[in-house]
Each structure stands twice: as structure tokens, then as C-alpha cells.
Design brief:
Domain Telomere-associated protein Rif1 N-terminal: 135-505
Subcellular location: Chromosome, Telomere; Nucleus
Structural class: mainly alpha
Radius of gyration: 51 Å
Helix content: 55-70%
Largest sheet: 3 strands, antiparallel
Strand content: under 5%
Keywords: Cell cycle, Chromosome, Nucleus, Telomere
Mean pLDDT: 79
Pfam family, one: Rif1_N
Strand order of the largest sheet: 2-1-3
Number of strands: 5
Region (Disordered): 1-118
Shape: elongated
Length: 1027
């Protein structure tokens, strides 16, 4: 029932038209109002010009009830305005009322008065009251003006200031709308039709406003929906009115109480048949909008009645109007995303495309041909890949694989043409469409091998087309990342990972990726994120539909157990991309370095719960060692170091990084405590034998680190030792013993590393041998460990500390294979003596250091022992030889260096046999040190030494083979050592030695001056012995 508002005037004044007061562009100032642009989906901009013909011209309300109002131009003096600015008045018969409902009619101040002020605008409440009075009237024209004024006010202001006033009067407003839209248009004229249109426009505006719509009575909402459906079914309803009823249904967002399943089915049914009665682009566009609204309100009903709208959706996708195509693409895309894999939608799409057109053709053929023709049009081509992907998304079903569709190949050919076209925009959209196709396929164990292979071809082809001197396009890279994102989903089985790794990573890495450095670097970035992540990543099924951009950091991480079990395949990829890898000066900041670190961390994580290394872990170590050996054998080119200015140093530095990174991550136990078997084809495999080292002759079975040191010191293709090579060896050794916290464990390890080669007992290695550098590093680290790590108390009690001294002796003995290492060898011996003196005392130096070392030198059978013997003799000067020591039985025995003297005896004999006056090989130093030793110690000790050396000293004194000429001066040094320092018993004991040597020498003396001088020297020595 209409509310009574009291006596109303026949009609309030109508505001002047906007055009009559609008300023020209030249007259517009900064204070002039700006044209309001409403949102695209706003009902205020929909069908604004649509309506039935009317004899009345529409009027616009130009009001502003708030402080921001339209400021009229002011003039200080009417005379100041030139006559040229004055506009001529129209004829009186064309004049319209100039009084506005916003201004009082009782008083008017002159416009040309200097004191005239702009009048305050009337409040929105007054406007609303005036509009309601008009709507309550009987005159159709008055109601029409009221609706237009109301709608104009709502359109002019986005943030409605009078929403509370409107809400308070909604009951009355909805009654007026209900009254006017229910009018029978068959009996009224154009004016009545326009009244219904304006009432519907106001209804749409109220429904669109969220706050007002929430306060609308449910019965009014129900009326709007039911009445709209009824009118759409009316074949006599004018098209102009039908459009606004469609606008009501597309704008509404009513709750389920109003939008029941029955009403939704009625809406879908009437829309399905609507274009049979009413045609036009506006009808098609509004219908698509309603579909989207219904989808959001009742997805289940919308999907179950797909047959009512699928034809219209496909028709909209192929529509000749661009805006309709775009809206259809949006509707199809949102439907596919909201519904997911749906058998109903999939079946419906297949049924529509399989619909026969004639005896030989089906609808799918016509659609494909039309899409091909549209591709050539400038405003249509870019939409073809989008249309293609919408259909692909709708075809998804858990019970139906898209490649099983009978028209699949025909449909894929459409996108193939998009990839092959010359338009870059179309190709870009084709890549996006292919990404969604990958999402639809969702590679898994059930995906056919042929389809898995097909998924990567368009993506890899984008890289093939690029020149090697250009960077790959970001869109193509994102497409590759998208393929990996869905192929390596976290729930994938190991068998599936095997297939996709080979197809999407290994195969491209061995071809296109390994030939282009920029691509190789991007693959390295991918691997760094897929092989390891410090924390779990969130994997989203709908990722491709959220954004076209996918970063490598978002890629899922592969199970570390799979990485370890398939380490061979993983390392093959690294070996391929290493050839064209990009390395920064700061190696660890390179993508390839980050990828290698990720691999090492993955292997470490897979073995993190192992107490002792398992066969699986050792097999992984074996494969890593095999890769390092292949890289070493290939040289700088294997790590893309050949392009560097100093290729060898760059190679050594990069190789050092790879080696030490893996050792640090996996731990030294896997490189030192287990054995690997080197096979005949130069590969390694985990050994099943006990974890102890076999005989030195068997180098095939050894610890990984010894295999490593062996192959980096044997290869003749590499240049000689360099600082970078020394850094490589030292860094590897330091990494291997980094978690060895005791002196004994470190020295035990260094002892093994010192003797990595098996040589002939008397053989020497050249000065430029890489093996010598390995030994030097071992010796230097051993000396550091010996002095830096204190002896453990427990080990001192059980006597095992002696094992440390034995290991040092072994290291020193191994160094004798090299000809020029004594600048490292001597400090290590000195360190050993200092440690023994500190831990065991002076008397233990001989038994724990000197004697074992001399015995080891003797056992080695080294030919040139002058230098080591000289070193031992020099260091022996500080040892208190000759002093008595109490034995375990309580007796006193003199500490005598039997092995050292035996070594001196052997050295004297061999040095005489191999004596060369041109290259004395340290004989002079040896003689000097022996002389110093013979001059030290107590007489008892010297007597014992001379007793043991009389045979070997005789070789030099007798010189039966005439090897020692007069210029060498060796004889005089020996005689000095024997004669000057000898007294008492020593003289008598060695009388036979000297006399035999002198007699033998006298028989062969020459007549030269030098010989006579030597003879005198010998006689003086004899006189000393005899006096």
C-alpha cells in the first residue's frame, strides 16, 4: 500500500539541463567539477542511452548537498563582462523552467550584484523527500523525472552520502518500483515503457550498492527475480526492457533464500531460449554476465545444467564482437577454475564438439577452422590461444585423460599454428595456453609416455629458436619452470621422477642447455632450488592460473632419498652443464656453485640418520668420485675454464670448490673410514669387504680420499705444481680432517695420504711431480697438527701416543721418494723431536724418533740417503747419546743409535760407490754432520761409533777406485773427524783403520804438489794416532 505523504504540489520545479549550465573547455577552471567515471561494471553506465522513444527530453539534476559543490562563476562588476561573452536568449517558446528544486523559490538575488554569494546546497534528505513526493504522484511524467533524478544522483556520487536516508525509506522506494515495473506495457505507450526502464535502472542501482542491497526486503528481491524471469519469457516484451531485466539478474547477489535452486534453473532455462526471441550483442553480453553470477551463487546447479549454457559459452568465445569474446573467455576460465576437473562439464564439451553438422563434418572441425581464420585478424588473433585453453580447462576430468579425446590431435593443431605464426603477441599467449595445458595434463604415473614427451617440445623449441648470443625470453623460461612445477609435484613417485627427470632435465641438459651458457646458468638456478630447500615449500595445484610468472624459487624440492638413489642421473646433468657453466669471481655466488651445494646438502640429508655410512651412502660417494675423476681427466674445458685468461688456475679453484664442498657436507667418515673399489673401466663402486686397508700393492681397494689424491697426482696431462694446485690439495686435506678433533686421528689420516703411490723401492719421482705437492701439503699439515693438538691424557696412560710418532715417521719416510723436499722434511723432523722431548723426555728421542726413522730409511732401500742422513745427524747433536739409562731389570745400559749408525754406514758405502765430483748430492753436508757427531758425546759413545763405521770409513780413506780426487777435500774432513777429536781408547781402536788406509794410499800417491800436501796431512794423522 502506498504511503500517504500529504498534499503535494502538482510538480516541483525541474532543474535546468546540464548542457545549459555547462562551461566550455575554455571557461573551465581548476574548481570546475571533473566528469565522474564510474566503474565498468557499475549499473550506472549500463544501457544509459537505451530506452523507448519519448516526447520528453530527459533532464539531469545538477545538485551538490555537501561542501564540494559546483562553484558558479562570479563577477565583481557586471560591466566588466564584455558584451561578446553574453549569450543571446532563445525564443520564449523554447525556454525551459530555470527554477531548480535545489534552490528556494521565495527569493532571488540578482546575479549581477557585487555582493551576491553562492547559496548553500540543499541537503540530500530534502532531495529524497522531493523525489518521493513525485513518485507518489499520479502523473507518469512526474514519476519519470523522479526516477531520472534519483538515478542521476546515485550515478554522480560513488560514495553515496545519503545512504542512511535511502535505507530509512527503502520500504517506500521499493513499493514505488514494484508498482511501476508491474505496469502492463501492452496498453501503455512509449512513455510508460520509459517509466518501466527508469524504474528498473533505479532498482539495479539499489541492488548494486552493497549496503543498500543488504537492507532490501526479501520479498522485494524475490519479486525482482521472479518478475524478471517472467518478463524474459514474454515474447511481446520490448528488447529495450528485456536488456534491463537481464541487468537486474546479472547485478543481483542475493542469498540462497532468494536464489533457490528452482529459480536458478528457471533463469538458465529462460536464458537458453532467449536469443530465439531477442537478438543483439547486448543480450549476449548480459547473458554471459548472468552465467558468471549464477556460477558464484550455486556452482552445483550451474554445472549440473551445463547443457543449458555450454552452447552459448562456446558461441560467445567465437563471437565477432571483441568485448563479448573477452567476457566469454572470462566466464569459461572462471568456470573451469571454480569447478576443477568435472566429468559433467567435460562430457558436455565433448558432446557439443562432436555434434554433426553434416554427414562428414562435426562442430569441432568448424570451430577449429573458424579459430584459424580468426587468427589472421588483428583484434582476434591474440584471443585464439585463450579460447583454446578455456576449452582444454573445461575438458578436465579425473576419469578422462584429455589425450584420449577423439579430437585431441585436431585441437592441438590449432595451438601449434599459434606457435608457428609470426605475431609475437599470439605466440606469447600460446605459451600461456600451453602452460595451462600442462596443468590440465598434470604429469603423473598414468600419463602416457608420448604425451609426456609432447609437453616439453613446444617449450624447448622456444630455446632452439633463440640465437646463442641472446638471452632466453622470460616467458619461455617461465613456461619451462611451469612444466617442472607440475612434473615434480611433491607427491610424485620415484618411478615418475625417473621419467620426468630424464625427459625434462637430463635430455635438454645434454643438448641445448649445455651449448648455451645463459641457458646453462638458468638450469643451474633451477637445480639449486629443486635439489635442496632449507624448509618445506607450499605447492599449489592452481599455481598456473594465479600468475603467468613463476620463479625458480617456487619450484618444489625433490626427495633427497631419490636424489641419492639416482645420483648417477643427477651427476650426468651436472657434467653436461659444467661444460658451459657461468662462474663468478666469487665462486660460491655462482648459480652452478649453489646447485652443487644443494646437491651436497641433499646427499647429506639423505644420510643424516646413519650412525655409520651405509652401502647406499658409499655408492653415492663412489659416483661423485667418478665424476670428479672425469672432470680432472678432461681438464679446464670440463668446467668451462678454458675461456679464462689463466685457465689452469681457474680450473684448479673450481675443482677445489667442488671437492671440498662435497667433503664438508658428507663428512670425512665417508671419505676415510670406508673403502671403494676402483674397477677396470676407471669407475668406483662401494666395497663389500672389511673396512681396513690391504697391502700397498693393491691400490684398487682404498678409501675415497686416497683414490682422489691418487688421480689428481698421477695425470701427466696437467701442468706442473702451482700455487693454485697447492691450494687445491691443502683445502681437500683440511676439509677431510675438519671433523677429526684428535691429534691421533689426524696423524693417522695424514700417514695414509703421504704414501698414496706404490713405487720401486729405490725409485725417485721427478721434481715437477704433482705427487710431490701432495706430500708437501701432508707434511706441513702434519707438522701443524703435531704441535697444535696436545696429547690426550688417556692415550698417554695406555701408551698409544707412540702411534703418533710412528705416523710421523711414516710420513717422513714417504717424502724420501722425492728429490727436493727437505725444506719441508727437516722442519717436520724437528717438530717430531720437540714433541717427543716435551712429552717423553730427551732420552726418548733416540728410541721413538731417530731410530725408527733411520730404520724406515734403511728398509725403503733409498739410493740417495745423504740428505736425510745429514738431517738426522744434525738433529742428533742435541740428543744425549752415551749416557747410561736404567733398564726395566734395574741394570744400566748406554743408549746407542744402532739404526742411525747403520744408516750412516750404509750412506758412506753407497755415497762412495755413486760418488760424482760434479754432483756430490749432499755428500759434503753429510760428512760435515758426521764430523760434528763424532766430535760430540762421551768418549765411550764415540768409540762405539767409530767401531761400527770403520769399514765404511775405510772406503773413503783407502779410495781404492780413485773416485775421490785431491780437489774434493773429502779425505781431509774424514781424517780431521777421526784424528783431531780422538783420544785414548779411540786412538788404539782405530789404529788399524787409519794405518791400512795410509799404507794403501801411499802406494798410489802422485808427485803433484797437492798430493804431497795430502800425504803430509795423512802422516800427521798417523803421528797423532801413534803418539
Amino acid at each position: 500500500m502506498v504511503e500517504v505523504l500529504g498534499p503535494l504540489s502538482a510538480r516541483p520545479p525541474t532543474p535546468p539541463r546540464t548542457s545549459s549550465r555547462m562551461l566550455s573547455e575554455n571557461d573551465r577552471t581548476d574548481d570546475s567539477p571533473v566528469v565522474v567515471h564510474t566503474p565498468r561494471d557499475s549499473p550506472f553506465s549500463v544501457n544509459g542511452s537505451t530506452g523507448a522513444p519519448s516526447s520528453r527530453q530527459s533532464k539531469r539534476v545538477n545538485f551538490s548537498p555537501w561542501t564540494r559543490y559546483i562553484k558558479p562563476p562570479s563577477f565583481t562588476n557586471s560591466a566588466a563582462k564584455s558584451k561578446s561573452d553574453l549569450k543571446s536568449l532563445p525564443p520564449s517558446n523554447e525556454c525551459k523552467p530555470t527554477k531548480s528544486i535545489l534552490k528556494p523559490t521565495t527569493s532571488h538575488s540578482a546575479t549581477n550584484s557585487p555582493s551576491a554569494e553562492p547559496q548553500a546546497p540543499v541537503s540530500f534528505a530534502m532531495l529524497l523527500e522531493s523525489i518521493l513526493q513525485q513518485l507518489a504522484g499520479e502523473a507518469v511524467s512526474s514519476r519519470l523525472d523522479a526516477y531520472m533524478q534519483f538515478f542521476g544522483a546515485l550515478r554522480a556520487y560513488d560514495n553515496l552520502p545519503g545512504d542512511q536516508e535511502i535505507i530509512a525509506r527503502l520500504g517506500l522506494i521499493t513499493q514505488f518500483i514494484h508498482r511501476d515495473v508491474s505496469r502492463d506495457l501492452t496498453t501503455g505507450g512509449p512513455l510508460h515503457t520509459n517509466l518501466v526502464i527508469q524504474a528498473l535502472k533505479l532498482a539495479v542501482a539499489l541492488v548494486w550498492h552493497s549496503e543498500i542491497s543488504a537492507r532490501l526486503p526479501d520479498d522485494f528481491k524475490t519479486f525482482l527475480v521472479d518478475h524478471s524471469v517472467n518478463c524474459l519469457q514474454d515474447v511481446k516484451m520490448p528488447k529495450s526492457v528485456v536488456t534491463h531485466y537481464l541487468s537486474v539478474l546479472s547485478t543481483q547477489n542475493f542469498n540462497a533464500k532468494v536464489m533457490t535452486n528452482t529459480r536458478i534453473i528457471r533463469i538458465l532455462t529462460v536464458l537458453h531460449e532467449l536469443t530465439n526471441r531477442v537478438t543483439g550483442s547486448a543480450i549476449v553480453s548480459q547473458r554471459l554476465s548472468i552465467y558468471l553470477r549464477v556460477l558464484n551463487q550455486s556452482k552445483m546447479i550451474f554445472v549440473s545444467n551445463a547443457s543449458l549454457w555450454m552452447d552459448h559459452l562456446i558461441s560467445g568465445l567465437l563471437h565477432h564482437v571483441k568485448d563479448i569474446r573477452i567476457k566469454a573467455i572470462s566466464v569459461g576460465f572462471q568456470t573451469a577454475i571454480a569447478c576443477g576437473p568435472n566429468p559433467t562439464l567435460s562430457k558436455c564439451v565433448r558432446e557439443v564438439f562432436s555434434r554433426p553438422l553434416d554427414e562428414r563434418r562435426k562442430l569441432v572441425t568448424e570451430v577449429c577452422e573458424r579459430m584459424t581464420r580468426m587468427m589472421a585478424l588483428s583484434d582476434c588473433g591474440v584471443h585464439i590461444p585463450q579460447i583454446w585453453s578455456v576449452i582444454i580447462l573445461l575438458l578436465r576430468s579425473k576419469k578422462f585423460n584429455v589425450d584420449q579425446w577423439e579430437h585431441f590431435k585436431e585441437w592441438v593443431l590449432v595451438l601449434q599454428r599459434c606457435f608457428n605464426c609470426s605475431d609475437s603477441a599470439i605466440k606469447a599467449q600460446a605459451i600461456v595456453g600451453w602452460n595451462r595445458f600442462v596443468y590440465v595434463v598434470s604429469p603423473s604415473d598414468t600419463t602416457s609416455p608420448s604425451l609426456l614427451r609432447m609437453l616439453s617440445k613446444p617449450i624447448v623449441s622456444q630455446f632452439d629458436r633463440k640465437k646463442q648470443d641472446k638471452q632466453p625470453s622470460q616467458l619461455a623460461l617461465c613456461s619451462y619452470y611451469n612444466l617442472l612445477y607440475y612434473a615434480f609435484r611433491p607427491s610424485a613417485s620415484f618411478q615418475h621422477l625417473d621419467v620426468v627427470w630424464e625427459e625434462y632435465v637430463a635430455s635438454p641438459a645434454s643438448s641445448i642447455f649445455s651449448s648455451v651458457p645463459s641457458l646453462s646458468d638458468r638450469v643451474a638456478h633451477v637445480l639449486s632450488n629443486m635439489l635442496w630447500s632449507p624448509q618445506a615449500k607450499v605447492w599449489l595445484e592452481n599455481k598456473v592460473n594465479e600468475s603467468n610468472k613463476l620463479d625458480p624459487e617456487e619450484l618444489p624440492s625433490i626427495d633427497s632419498r631419490w636424489i641419492r638413489s639416482r645420483i648417477t642421473s643427477v651427476l650426468n646433468v651436472f657434467e653436461d652443464i659444467f661444460k658451459s657453466s657461468v662462474w663468478n669471481p666469487d665462486i660460491e655466488r655462482s648459480n652452478i656453485a649453489t646447485a652443487w651445494i644443494g646437491l651436497s646438502k641433499a646427499l647429506s640429508h639423505a644420510s643424516s640418520k646413519e650412525i655409520t655410512p651405509t652401502p647406499e651412502s658409499m655408492q653415492a660417494v663412489a659416483h661423485v668420485l667418478g665424476l670428479l675423476q672425469r672432470l680432472w681427466n678432461a681438464g679446464p674445458s670440463s668446467l668451462n675454464a678454458a675461456i679464462e685468461e689463466d685457465s689452469t688456475d681457474a680450473f684448479y679453484d673450481r675443482f677445489s670448490f667442488l671437492s671440498t664442498t662435497m667433503i664438508y657436507s658428507l663428512g670425512s667418515a665417508r671419505f676415510t673410514e670406508k673403502l671403494l673399489l676402483k674397477t677396470a673401466d676407471e669407475t668406483f663402486q662401494a666395497a663389500t669387504t672389511p673396512t681396513h686397508r690391504h697391502q700397498k700393492a693393491n691400490t684398487s681397494l682404498d678409501s675415497p680420499i686416497l683414490h682422489f689424491l691418487r688421480f689428481i697426482s698421477e695425470l701427466p696431462g696437467h701442468s706442473g705444481p702451482s700455487p693454485s694446485y697447492s691450494r687445491l690439495v691443502t683445502s681437500v686435506l683440511e676439509a677431510t680432517c675438519s671433523d677429526k678433533l684428535s691429534r691421533s686421528s689426524r696423524l693417522e689420516f695424514f700417514s695414509q695420504c703421504a704414501d698414496i703411490h706404490v713405487f720401486d723401492a729405490a725409485a725417485h719421482i721427478g721434481d715437477d711431480s704433482l705427487a710431490e705437492t701432495v706430500w708437501r701439503s701432508v707434511a706441513q699439515l702434519s707438522a701443524s697438527s703435531l704441535s697444535s693438538f696436545p696429547m690426550e691424557t688417556a692415550r698417554e696412560r695406555d701408551g698409544s701416543v707412540c702411534r703418533d710418532y710412528e705416523n710421523i715417521v711414516n710420513i717422513l719416510s714417504a717424502g724420501l721418494k722425492f728429490s727436493d723436499v727437505f725444506e719441508v722434511w727437516n722442519p717436520l723432523v724437528d717438530s717430531l723431536i720437540r714433541v717427543v722431548r716435551t712429552e717423553k723426555g730427551d732420552r726418548a728421542i733416540s728410541t721413538m724418533a731417530m731410530e725408527p726413522l733411520a730404520a724406515s730409511i734403511i728398509e725403503q732401500g733409498t739410493r740417495d740417503t745423504c740428505k736425510p742422513s745429514a738431517s738426522l745427524l744434525k738433529l742428533s747433536l742435541s740428543v744425549p747419546y752415551g749416557h747410561e739409562a736404567e733398564t726395566a731389570k734395574g741394570t744400566h745400559e748406554m743408549a746407542f743409535p744402532h739404526k742411525l749408525i747403520e744408516l750412516v754406514d750404509k750412506t758412506l758405502r753407497q755415497s762412495y760407490e755413486s760418488f760424482d765430483p760434479v754432483e756430490p748430492n749432499g755428500i759434503a753436508d753429510f760428512i760435515e754432520c758426521l764430523t760434528s757427531l763424532l766430535g760430540s758425546g762421551v768418549p765411550t759413545f764415540r768409540t762405539a761409533v767409530l767401531t761400527h763405521l770403520q769399514q765404511s770409513l775405510a772406503f773413503y780413506l783407502k779410495d781404492g777406485e780413485r773416485k775421490i780426487n785431491a780437489e774434493s777435500g773429502v779425505e781431509s774432513r774424514i781424517l780431521t773427524a777421526v784424528s783431531v777429536r780422538s783420544k785414548g781408547l779411540v786412538l788404539r781402536t782405530n789404529l788399524e783403520l787409519v794405518s791400512r788406509a795410509v799404507v794403501s794410499r801411499l802406494e798410489h800417491l802422485a808427485s803433484s804438489t797437492t798430493s804431497r800436501r795430502l800425504l803430509c796431512t795423512k802422516f800427521r794423522a798417523y803421528n797423532l794416532f801413534g803418539s
